[in-house]
Task: inverse folding
């Protein structure tokens, strides 16, 4: 029983982190049709910034989100917008985001050491449930992920900026005819995506150390979650994140810890092969012939 | 641009001598290129013979070149963002050393076997992913790569796990042990790299590479001329996987120790950067990219671990200012002129050649029949076609007219295999075409054009037309990839045949200009030439005259007459009734997805139901 609870708590925290990364990916993919290979660098940059700033409190959290939002915007302008104007393909744009990530990797190593950083929890203490101590930090992580999920749903479904995002996602040139400036909307999308990725990194810092080397593995877990959910919907990404985190935990617990994250990726490979539109139903532009 | 007089007579006897001289010149060029590459490799080896550090750098660079050139096939030419390439490289590396240990065979036996294993692994990646669109393809291959790393790490009885694989024996020739860091191993690797350079150079000019680029740029255009996109992608996986496996086997015997780290995603990133910096889909791009990478890495070391900054900045700058890489920069400076690659390859033939674009042998051959019957087509409840049928015979033009939304283009889509009808049949001489893929329909001899021309914009017109001549080639795939004599004869035949067709449609003066830079009317006419290039039995022309001037339309009418006089059957859609009735003895009229009239042109046009359908009235 305790084992189960420990597994549940650990997997839920991971699911929250993966979900935030996946939200960031989905927002960007819907808007710019770009898979952001630099998302992991945004996240760990946020986490490392948080661990080294202003006592790692709430102020540091806000500052970190501001920094990663600005980095998201910079990524859009430098790695995506410029390349788009030069006529690069979407695959090239994805590599451009990776290039921006490598610069962040360098900057992170310059400002701080190339090592793991952890911080004190944002909220201390915990609750004991069934003989297992659940830290408040873990609860906070899951709660914040849910809050972000709800806010994104409200933004997309209920507000003018959200509809503008939808219009641009559908077709930028059509959106422009309706008086929407796609560049402004996309800049907003990347700002938001940067902040959400940064939040994932920040929330991870108190539970386990964050280093620059974590950038690619974190991004890859986010990809897995986003693709399982069809790479187009926020709900899909949330469900995908839960599936990835629990599949991982169960596999390690019951099958083999040697092949730690093998299962999630085999699952991803199989899902892409069998049902590329994801577990959540209709996807667009999935198959090319 | 070559200036060639077109005279409809066979080449005079003098042609043989000229062509002999041309072939000799070509032969010299074919020897000069690998000799130069070999001399370069030897010179590097001699210069750095006593410098252990640089000897290692050039050895590693030669292996990297093989890996990158293989990636250039799949990412550069085929445009597939395959993130499993380095995983396949790892498969080759592990396979070679595991085979040596388990089977007790030598390096020379294990390397070809490892290439085979890598090929199979590459196809394992390809089969489930190759139909996916860009982002999904990238993530699917990434998932494979990570799963492969996990398996290698976890399966430690065979691979040594995270600790790596130790005790790899260096290759031996006679009594000489080829140790990495010594000149002998460099000679081995350099020889392999030079051979690969020649192979990939030839590949870059080959029909196969051209078809891969066509699939990359426009799947629809490729299918229209009978190219199977799926098979081409599989081929790209086959080639890139095999040579990635070769590079992996070499690197394992260079390091004499491999671990999952040797084949990590960071290597994948390096490979991507090298191809992008050099220029994807070019022959020299991989070479230039490897040199640039070495320069960046050395500069980064000098400045103190700045390689990531330089890599990242290089990627962003390249995409913003030189999306085609360094080769592209050089080319755009040097080649503001029409492309000259065909005259250089084939040699400008200074003698008249036969216009013979259309096969005379088809004349008088058994008449063929394309018959459509009872076709129903609807899209999510909107009916496009309802029980329609029509028939075209060899040597006739059947006009298909009707108001907007009548289902004319849907008809062409059904016949050409682009959409599958809910009911009905399309038969060519009694053989069912419904259910065949578009490229298969084209290969059977039913070729279409589009309302807005679908050409490969970055190819010149003649290359676009040659693309349509694939079926006539007699050379095998390997001959094509290596540009062997029989393939060259095919290319020469296709080239002159294509020039003849461009002449036929009146745009030969533009043959060597890039399709994307030419006016619409020229491209439209070239598209008809491309459709004719594969000697089709039937042409489906979807509004060939739309948006053209009267003069251009007359050229097209002439081309259609010429094709039909040689036995091609033609289904012609157009709005210009004058244009259609001048070409067609028979007409079919569609309105709202049904056939409302059929018969001799003059009679059909006089029918009141037809007039109403066009001007509005009863049929609404």
Result:
């Amino acid at each position: 029983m305790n084992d189960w609870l420990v597994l549940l708590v650990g997997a839920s925290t991971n699911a929250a982190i993966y979900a935030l990364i996946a939200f960031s990916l989905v927002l960007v993919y819907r808007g710019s049709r770009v898979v952001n290979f630099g998302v992991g660098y945004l996240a760990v940059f946020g986490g490392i910034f948080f661990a080294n700033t202003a006592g790692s409190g709430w102020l540091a959290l806000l500052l970190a989100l501001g920094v990663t939002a600005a980095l998201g915007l910079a990524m859009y302008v430098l790695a995506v917008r410029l390349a788009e104007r030069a006529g690069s393909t979407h695959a090239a744009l994805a590599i451009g985001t990776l290039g921006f990530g490598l610069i962040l990797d360098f900057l992170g190593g310059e400002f701080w050491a190339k090592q793991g950083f952890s911080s004190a929890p944002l909220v201390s203490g915990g609750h004991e449930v069934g003989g297992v101590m659940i830290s408040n930090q873990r609860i906070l992580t899951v709660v914040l992920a849910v809050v972000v999920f709800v806010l994104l749903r409200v933004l997309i479904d209920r507000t003018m900026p959200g509809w503008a995002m939808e219009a641009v996602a559908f077709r930028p040139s059509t959106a422009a005819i309706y008086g929407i400036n796609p560049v402004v909307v996309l800049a907003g999308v990347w700002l938001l995506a940067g902040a959400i990725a940064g939040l994932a990194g920040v929330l991870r810092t108190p539970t386990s150390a964050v280093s620059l080397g974590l950038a690619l593995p974190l991004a890859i877990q986010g990809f897995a979650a986003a693709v399982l959910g069809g790479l187009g919907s926020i709900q899909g990404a949330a469900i995908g994140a839960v599936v990835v985190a629990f599949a991982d935990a169960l596999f390690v617990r019951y099958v083999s810890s040697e092949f730690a994250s093998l299962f999630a990726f085999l699952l991803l490979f199989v899902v892409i092969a069998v049902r590329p539109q994801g577990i959540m139903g209709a996807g667009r532009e999935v198959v090319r012939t | 641009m070559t200036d060639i007089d077109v005279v409809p007579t066979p080449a005079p006897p003098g042609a043989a001598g000229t062509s002999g001289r041309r072939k000799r010149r070509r032969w010299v060029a074919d020897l000069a290129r690998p000799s130069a590459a070999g001399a370069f490799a030897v010179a590097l080896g001699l210069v750095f013979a006593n410098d252990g550090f640089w000897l290692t750098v050039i050895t590693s660079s030669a292996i990297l070149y093989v890996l990158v050139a293989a990636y250039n096939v799949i990412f550069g030419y085929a445009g597939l963002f395959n993130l499993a390439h380095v995983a396949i490289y790892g498969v080759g590396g592990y396979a070679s050393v595991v085979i040596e240990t388990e089977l007790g065979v030598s390096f020379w036996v294990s390397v070809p076997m490892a290439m085979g294993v890598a090929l199979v692994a590459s196809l394992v990646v390809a089969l489930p992913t190759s139909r996916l669109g860009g982002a999904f393809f990238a993530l699917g291959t990434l998932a494979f790569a990570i799963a492969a790393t996990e398996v290698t790490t976890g399966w430690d009885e065979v691979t040594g796990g995270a600790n790596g694989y130790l005790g790899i024996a260096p290759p031996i020739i006679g009594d000489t042990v080829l140790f990495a860091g010594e000149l002998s191993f460099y000679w081995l690797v350099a020889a392999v790299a030079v051979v690969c350079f020649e192979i990939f150079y030839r590949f870059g000019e080959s029909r196969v590479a051209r078809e891969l680029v066509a699939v990359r740029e426009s799947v629809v255009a490729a299918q229209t001329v009978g190219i199977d996109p799926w098979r081409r992608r599989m081929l790209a996986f086959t080639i890139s996987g095999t040579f990635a496996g070769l590079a992996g086997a070499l690197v394992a015997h260079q390091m004499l120790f491999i671990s999952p780290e040797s084949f990590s995603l960071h290597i994948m990133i390096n490979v991507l950067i090298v191809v992008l910096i050099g220029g994807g889909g070019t022959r020299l791009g991989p070479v230039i990219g490897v040199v640039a990478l070495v320069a960046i890495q050395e500069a980064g070391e000098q400045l103190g671990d700045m390689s990531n900054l330089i890599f990242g900045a290089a990627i962003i700058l390249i995409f913003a200012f030189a999306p085609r890489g360094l080769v592209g920069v050089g080319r755009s400076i040097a080649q503001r002129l029409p492309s000259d690659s065909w005259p250089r390859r084939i040699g400008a033939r200074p003698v008249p050649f036969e216009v013979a674009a259309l096969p005379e042998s088809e004349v008088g051959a058994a008449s063929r029949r394309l018959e459509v019957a009872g076709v129903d087509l609807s899209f999510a409840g909107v009916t496009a076609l309802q029980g329609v049928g029509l028939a075209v015979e060899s040597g006739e033009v059947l006009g298909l007219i009707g108001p907007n939304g009548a289902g004319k283009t849907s008809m062409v889509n059904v016949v050409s295999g682009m959409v599958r009808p809910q009911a009905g049949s399309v038969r060519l001489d009694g053989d069912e075409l419904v259910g065949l893929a578009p490229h298969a329909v084209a290969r059977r001899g039913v070729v279409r054009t589009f309302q807005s021309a679908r050409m490969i914009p970055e190819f010149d017109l003649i290359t676009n037309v040659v693309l349509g001549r694939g079926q006539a080639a007699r050379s095998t795939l390997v001959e094509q990839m290596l540009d062997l004599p029989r393939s060259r004869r095919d290319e020469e035949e296709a080239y002159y045949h294509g020039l003849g067709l461009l002449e036929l449609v009146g745009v030969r003066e533009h043959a060597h200009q890039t399709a994307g830079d030419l006016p619409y009317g020229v491209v439209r006419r070239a598209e008809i030439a491309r459709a004719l290039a594969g000697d089709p039995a039937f042409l489906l022309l979807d509004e060939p005259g739309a948006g053209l001037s009267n003069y251009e339309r007359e050229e097209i009418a002439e081309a259609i007459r010429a094709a039909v006089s040689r036995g091609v059957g033609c289904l012609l859609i157009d709005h210009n009734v004058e244009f259609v009735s001048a070409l067609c003895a028979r007409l079919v009229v569609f309105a709202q997805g049904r056939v409302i009239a059929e018969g001799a042109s003059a009679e059909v046009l006089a029918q009141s139901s037809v007039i109403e359908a066009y001007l509005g009235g009863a049929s609404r």
About this structure: Chain A touches chain B through 57 residues (CB under 8 Å). The CA atoms of residues 12 and 277 of chain A lie 25 Å apart. Residues 17-214 of chain A form one domain.
